[in-house]
């Protein structure tokens, strides 16, 4: 079959002339819609005067040109040039450009337009794509010209570098004031106010009492949820005027060192002057602690106790298999949720309600027994709440009655509990032996007086006991001196003893707050008994 030969196609080219109206708005006969942008970065008086002068200048300059139609002067006062998102009038100008209201923008310099090179170039390109030019008077640059971007880029780098240098100088000055303790920090917080004319913050007495209540209640066992309810029920407002509190706000109060009269500088820092991203300082930068900087609202001992309690609660381990997180949840409602432990399997006890018809009983049961039945804890006992409370009160009454007689032993046990140093137990043992030896001497003295025969043996015994007591007294003084030097031990002892002196410790009625303060833990045994271990070192067993 013979192939067909196709003749080559002839291309036809037709010239379509450009529309002069669209080539350049500047060449059109209609007046250009011209706007101006100006900015000052601080609220200083000379800067404000410069700001007003710029607005006046551009208003008059644009209005006097017959080929221009005045649109507006977009001005940001006291705003940084490194972040566009904070410049409301700049963003309003860009939106007006997108709506076709503006043909050209006048500005003093590249640094006034933006100090961030990324923002500067991106917005210039965006406006250029819409046919909108920017004229930088100081550099005599028109952004619509072909080679303008190179020059604008150079000046933008210089402007950003200048901002970074200024930021570094300001940061250096701030650090110096922090080192000297003269840096003025803000006190916009519950309990304090500080105006510009004030040299130090003023305490607002009514608010300060609320702050003290928050610290005291947390130390006594209240949870963050309970503190939230307390604040909202009493109509206490946050620093922003809200009536609803968050647990995060309450925790910030409990951890704020300003309430104890101290200030920690540089708890946060900015990563750079362009993004202005703020990070919590976890050791990347130097911190400065200024103690006794201003009048305190909260006692330092109470503040330290709250910090220890915060750490204790946040480190609670998961106790239930149904808990999803690795840490357990603190219960501020019932003290026994924290203190009552099964001696058989080590699980905590949980409060349960048993209902049958109109009958309702509350009891406590081993959590492992509740979740797994008798598989892991076959022998643990459940206790009716009222009987359990009564047994705890009896145990504590016995423990406190022994308090005055065994104060030295109590201190020694507390010292060991706080420090873990077994040598602190020596003082209690010495004191106990002195009492025993003194009793022996009294018995020997009675025998010496009553015997009608040879008294030499009794005299020797009396002498030996007297020598022992003398040696024990010397050891006692050494142990006491060592114990007295421990600030941590004496702080805990003082807190507990002061609390015992100021509260009703007759234990006629069960009180969760009292139990939290006095009891270290309670162990529940399979024979129906409990062992109450107090924070002052005593152990008492009671039958529920």
Question: How confident overall, as mean pLDDT?
Answer: 76
Instruction: Describe the global form.
Output: elongated
Structural class: alpha/beta
- Distance from N terminus to C terminus (CA atoms, Å) equals 115 Å
The largest pleated sheet is described as: 5 strands, mixed
Q: Which residue ranges are poorly predicted, with pLDDT under 50 across at least 5 consecutive positions?
A: 22-26, 323-327
| Count of runs of 4 or more consecutive helical residues | 18
Tally of structural domains? 3
For the largest sheet, list the strands in their spatial order. 2-1-3-4-5
How many E strands? 18
Taken as a percent bin, the fraction of beta residues is 15-25%
Q: Report the radius of gyration as a whole number of Å.
A: 40 Å
The percent of residues in helical segments reads: 40-55%
Summarize the structure.
With 544 residues, the protein is of the alpha/beta class. The chain has 18 helices and 18 strands.
Structure description:
The structure is a single chain. The chain is of the alpha/beta class. Helix content is 46%, strand content 15%. It has 3 domains: 22-165, Rossmann fold (3-Layer(aba) Sandwich); 192-310, Putative Large Serine Recombinase, Chain B, Domain 2 (Hect, E3 ligase catalytic domain fold); 318-544, no CATH class. The protein contains 18 helices and 18 strands. A hairpin with a 4-residue loop joins strand 16 (519-524) and strand 17 (529-534). Helix 7 (205-219) packs across helix 10 and helix 14 (407-419) crosses helix 17.
